[in-house]
Amino acid sequence: MAKSVEHIKPDKEAQTPEQVARCKLVDERSMDGEHSEEDLQSYVQLAYYAGHQHIAMSKTARQIVPLPKEEWQVQYTANRILPAVRNELSKVLRHKLSKAVIPASTEEADIRSARIADKVVEWLEYELKLQEIDEEAVMWALVTRIGFVKPVWNPAKGLMVATKEGRPIRQGDVDIEVVNLFEIKWDPGASRWSDVRWVIHERQRSLEYIKAVYGKDVPADDTLTASNIYDGKLRSLTSGSSVFGTQSTKAKNSAIVKEYWEAPSHEYPNGRRITIAGGVELWYEEDIGFGEKDNTDREIPIFPLIHIPVPGKIIGTSVTEQLIPVQREYNKSRGQIIENKNLMGKPKWAAEDGAIIDYEIDSAPGSVIWYRKGFNPPIMLQPGSLGADVYKNVEQCIEEFMYISSQQEVSHGSTPTGVNSGVAIQLLQEQDDTKLAPTIAKYGRWKQKYMSYLLKIIRFKYDEVRTVQLVGQNKRMEALEFRGSDLTSTDIRFEDMSLTQLSNAARKQYILELISMGVLNPQMDRDLIIRMLELGITDDLYDGLEIDVQQALNENASWAKEDFSPITRDFFHHEVHVAQHNKFRKGEEYMAMSPEMQTAIDAHIQEHMTFIMQAMMQASPASVEEGDTGDLDMGRVIGALSPEEQAALKQDPTILDTL
Fold first, then answer.
1. Total domain count for the chain?
2. What is the pLDDT of residues 590-613, one digit of tens each?
3. Per residue in 563-586, pLDDT tens?
4. In 3-state terms, what secondary structure has residue 199?
5. Which residue in 412, 407, 413 sits closest to 439, CA to CA?
6. In a domain, 56, yes or no
7. Residue 211: inside a domain, yes or no?
8. Cβ-contact 221, 255 below 8 angstroms
9. How many CB atoms lie under 10 A from the CB of residue 181?
């Protein structure tokens, strides 16, 4: 049984010995989880991405310092890392992943529940702006090697249900936040994230925020020098320099909130969560799940996205880290070329001591150089040529940029010299995209994990009926009413993402070839084809066919509640209704009904069949009399089936007999 949350006393000195011990444990593990060298490397990568590239990293002092230079030296920066990162970001996020919630069983009730969950997932995409969340987290991974998201229950969201001491009390709602490497500490003994025993999320909060959320008074931390941990560490690592353009600001009335999550163990079967600030325990609970009603596996709700895995290392590496040596050499060579150009434009002069008359030699056109009589005239010293090696080095650096980032000329909107064939250009583009397949697949698995957890939060925290507004691609709206217990499954699966490696033109050509070869049937595989082509008219919730499917499912749900009020109208899509109702009649809910209830449902379906036969007789009376159902009408029936029913129809054509 989960231990209830203790009411922590606001006075630090008045805490119990157990509370003091837990605060000490969190502080000790916070120190154990320090990864300052990794932080330092990540700040260097951030600096290079932002264009601050003439810096050095002092591992002994654990600081980042600007490189010294003479007055005449050129510290030229041509940032080739930024476009490489942005290009990979666009390739990872350019395709919308098709996802679906897997029903808990084959029962009609669980299938209906999965359809509700599908709609909730689509609502989450818009409500939580998950596209922006994904972009930010992926960007952290591309630049600093790892990014995190943290799904949470936010008690400050939702409708206001009451007031307390003049403050609104709200329903609470699901939320998600992006977390970066500098705010997370974890078990240093783990080499894989799945083996991590504990995680600490540290974030600076104002004392007012801590009091409002936790109801506790904590002492302020006077050592904080910036608005958050990220800026504070940045200033300490850059030794107060202006490398990142930071300014020293004193944080007032703030403290570091440390949220400690411990995975389930023999001592704590459901794990535990401890939150402290300023040595005061704010929250303690021996369950990181959702209480006794939660029968799922407990997991720490912090999900990492690692760019390029490195065996035996959690953080891994990134394209930014691998491009830094090439970028440094490229800047150096380009700087030398510019310095030589400057020297040629304003060369050095050789003159005898005392020959020049009290003024500097300038490079202005038509100027007269005066020198003393009896001395030799000043001589211009022509600078030597840099040689071909310097220019060749620049070209070599550009090639290495493309090789390491897996981005050839075609990925940046240009074509290699001598390549004119459209097929050859497409092959080069696909070669670049194929190298990103592991990253895109990893992104899909990461999104699947955190979205499943978001559904889990809704399942166990939506105790009352909630109403959400859904907007589809055709701008139609639907109000969905449900409670958390309606979601019997939170298992989200993504469709095969192999086609996401292709460009839009290549994917469409590939699908058209499958149709021409007969692999795909335009009538039976209609929904699949349109969805794969991404024509923008296939929103499963609001497509004309899916509206009828949902209407039939709503009638099934009413029957399951012994409500037989649904009636049959002439404008319904009767083939769709019959197909969905027959699925209901094959389930346990129908079998468990009384004969009178079953008869009422059978009569309802017979009304649909009557409308179908009437339409067929009007279309072709003669063929109906001869027993021919008509290809056109069978095409309508086939097109009305779901993808699962169409697949079953391919295996057993006699299924049509039920219609």
1. 2
2. 888 898 999 999 999 999 988 888
3. 888 889 888 888 888 888 888 888
4. strand
5. 407
6. no
7. yes
8. yes
9. 23
